[in-house]
Amino acid sequence: MEAVISEFKRAYKEGDGYGLSQSFSPIAPDSQPQRLYNFFRSSNFANVQKDVKYEILHSNAGGFKFSSEEGNGWVEVFVAYWKAVGEILNAEAAQRANPKASWTKAYEAWKELVNQLLRGYNTCGFEAWTVPCLYVAGKYIRIFAIKADEGMTTNTNATTNFQEDLDPEAEKNEKLEDAARVLNRIFQSCLADRAPLEESRKWGIYNIINLLFKTYFKLNSISLTKNVLRAIQAYRGDMPPLEAFPKSHQVTFKYYTGVIQFLEENYVEAEKNLTEAWQLCHKDAVRNKELILTYLIPCHLLTTHTLPTLALLAPFPRLQKLFLPLSRCIKKGDLAGFDAALLAGEDEFVKRRIYLTLERGRDIALRNLLRKVFIAGGYEEAKEPLTLPVRRTRIPVAEFGAAISIGSKETMDNDEVECLLANMIYKNLMKGYIARERGIVVLSKGGAFPGTGV
Fold it and tell me: What does the pLDDT read at residue 154?
């Protein structure tokens, strides 16, 4: 126990918030694999309160003294941590024998640690620079809640990479729902801090928001994120600007904000936030970059009608498998191939909630097919010599119909073809009008297919 509390005191004396937070980590460092075991064995339930109180308030290790109120607050935190470590060790031991062993007691014990930390900030005068302790507490209450609900160890990536937590099939998440309420209390505690900004817990708010977003996505309760965004907007004038926070906080927040806007079909704003997340993301964070691109590529497809390049997808084999077949079919105007590629990736597209957005890419494929018909039509005969050639702009509906039937491998009558063409004109993917009585489409001479150069 003395070793852990000495480390805590050293970090406190140096004003090292992140070092202080590691004093409460439920994961033993590689250099001290027996740290948790030794810490728990250093006391017992009868004496732990007395032992912790002596080490924090009366021991001279560290060379300084806490005030009575703050010191007693940290005593309660460490007592809760000691109990949580005991439950974690028990759960890990049980899990080695049974992978589905319960983590419920470990979750409840860690929840008590979080409650004591919140009490410390609200009533015992814990200083704002120690707020990384809330990061660690919030991170692991979520992990232990998932373990308690699943009854088994979760995949490490599922608790560290942001979008991997999207789980539309989530049903029984009692502890995770409870953890979301605890995280919301932490969020409210940071948001409502009235101290001057330089001494405010508001500096920890985006880390907690990101944990809340991850939890709401895991619970398939994405609508709840709107409450958080509204609260942030309401307090905007009292908050430091987002750019002043660590880049890791910015990237995750912009990513989740972009995904929320994407799901609301606000693709312009989604593209803006996802692009900023992409630009700020660390170059070695390959997994997170892949998750950003999962939504940014469909956004680009709808907003600018651009396709991902081979160079962009090169570091991401999984994205190549998902998007390259679709991209090739869109570029060639291969409607049947597009439908087949969409069907092949349907499970993953639905899981990521991008299926309906990608389905709209069929309009771009159709646009490219119709454009090929327009280009293949050649030029009108020049009425006067030395005049610039003008492309044929009066295209029979039957020519477009033949191309669509070949591209989709389905026979279509003229009414169906005209309906498709009318939709293309309405969506501004093609400029012109249909002359039904003459059975032709009259296209604009100044950009029949906007944004494509013809």
Answer: 44
